[in-house]
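#struct-pred

JT: dropping the chains for the assembly here, can someone run the whole complex?
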Amino acid sequence: MPTSMRTTLTALCLLAAPAAAGEGPSFAIRAARVHADGNTLENAVVLVRDGEIAEVGTDVAVPEELVTVEHDGDLSAGLVALRDYSGIEGEGRDSTRSVLASADLAHAFDPDHSDMQRLIEEGVTTVVLVPRSGSLVGGQCAVVKPGARVLRRNALLHVDLGSSALSSNSFPTSYAGALEELERCFAKTEGPFADARAGSLKTLLQAGDRAEAARAIAFARQHGLKGVLAGAGRAGELAEDLAAAGLGVVLEPFRPGTSRHVLASAARLADAGVPIAFALDAPGDHPATLRLTAAAYVRAGLDPEAARRAMTSGAAELAGVGDEVGSVRPGCDADLVLWSGDPVDPGSRIVAVYVDGELVHGDPTKEKDEEDDDGGDE
Amino acid sequence: MWSTLAALALAAATPALPAEDPAPRAEDVAQEPAAADSLTIHAERVYTTGGEVMTDAVVEVSGGKIAGVRPGRSAPRDAVRAAAVTAGMIDLSARLNTRFYSVEQAVEVQPHLDVADSLDLYDPEWRRVARTGVTTVLVNPFDRNVIGGHGAVLKTAGQDDLGARLVEGAKTVIRGAIGTEPSAGNHPAFRRPTDFYSRRPTTRMGVEWEWRKAFFDAVAAQRLPEREFPGADELRAALAGERLLMIQAWATQDIRTAVYLKEEMVREGFGELDLVIDAAAEAWREPALLARSSTAVVLPPFDDDGRVGPDDAFLPWNAARVLVDAGVTVCLSSHGSTGAESTLDRQAGLAMRGGLSFEQALAAVTTDPARILGVEDRVGTVEAGKDADLVLWNGRPFEPTSRVIGVVVGGELVLDPR
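RK: done, full complex below.
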């Protein structure tokens, strides 16, 4: 596209942004490839109205008064991380008690924290805040949108069946003691544990290794718990049990030294039909880790489409917000990322990020990111 | 592969039999085609049961069980070969996965909690132990509590599923300790009480008090239900003889305390405990006491200077001989040590050097532990119908010049001599 036309479009964008008489932005994006709901549409248009996706397709009629952004690259839903600690700082766990089931992580959410902007810059538009490890039951996870709002409170009940819940000088010090305490909790007839047993509250089961994961799966089946298993890198080796239990799996972030067994897990789980998502332990991990994790698992054998789904709609569904975020589908929030190439290709660059239809990072009209700030020496 | 080779062997074997051999053997061999999970082991000496030896014999394994032991003149060419075969060894004090997470220290007396909840069958340590010839182990909670909870009896190899590895029919074991270990982490309350370790017991006197209190309270709760506490029913079951009570006691005074505890329970009319003392290094000092109370012992590994354990207990080379002569059932163990000289085969050799006969040493690592655990109908000897747990040797077992060259657990060749 000639520069002059692009400049005109930019001017129109700036003028036309609040064009529609609704609550949010309305515009359209035509992208070379749109990753929508399991399909990749070539040269398709996404129509946004009032911050929500209104239409997606190859022959969408865009009303005259709305701007169409042209993007010669990929468009996907904003990334969804199923485990994150951004903005929580020291508020992620109350260490006075090992079981605090009604603790609400949404109280720790600060939408304007500097961690949030870093998430957005890497295309992560929804995260699930999880209690810090150390408690047997740390509280209830919250699904939040960085820079925006709490999407869903009490999304998942955190239950730790690993050694991270054990202490050397406070109860419980042993797996047996922890299990006994959990049995006591889940015998209650009301409250979060009863809701989890009834299926109205999903659980996030934390486990560190295969033995702990096996116990967690058995515990979930015994009590009829639904939700996800997190923390067990080699969960792929328990794929059949996970599928039978109806649990999803949160895959661990890729770090230098991640073993090939762990990386092979993703493909095995996907083949067994186990829903998967990725964890992002920001701010400890750089937010770019989310898509680099996806790329690493793809390199180890995970199907690229399964990887794209795991970092968007798959994670959203496991967190219970699949109707609102994670998909490029009519009715979903307009959380969109424009890429220079395939989202699971580590060589791709993020060109622009939209949250609820607002352009929150980047500029689709620019060829390259122009640095606004010096950035520092790192 | 096995079925093809076995079939070929069968085809080859039949015409090769000398005319004067009795026909039934040929029929037995010819009739059944070998199953896919079958194994044939040929050895110069097969130690079947008690003190019996079959020379030049073949052990047939099928479906995880020993199908039979027969003379080996017609052993197939692909049979696994060894100089000797014994039953798989049984270690009552293997201490696999026995770390801090295996015992709940919030309360000193936890008879009902189960070490099985803390086992990690993916740990490569299991394979390492299996390859030393130990096929069945009793794993116990770490000895930081006065009463730590249930132990678990399982095979050292097989599927990764706990249910498949546990040995069905084994007695339920309750584990505890007498001596300094249970009190080691506690301190008196006058220090800043930052955690629950500001509590009793802080001495071995306190430990003994906890034991007696646990049993007295358990019996009292029978008459006064409001005094019931978690695990009390387990203690009552132990008094009824329905549990195997394993108490770790290294030093003479602690071994005496354990036996006196059992005798006091009988005197009070509470019941008779089925008692076995683990790491009973100084048991050789009280053979008559142990014999009269029908208390079995498990010895820790022998050490060069004789000093073993946290209390520097003295374990002489002839400890096993002294006890066996007095009629005490003695088992040998590795007590969790990973040293090359602490394995059960070495311990049996050292016990022989200390005076045990070969048969007694073999019993101390096979039939005696099997009987103590109540699984003697499944393991401990090389007989048809028992679990296919076998050890293959390159010489006479327990000799310092001999080595474990092959191990079979549940029919699976965990260590292959070929």
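JT: nice. Confidence is low (pLDDT under 50) at residues 3-34 of chain B. Chain B touches chain A through 26 residues (CB under 8 Å).
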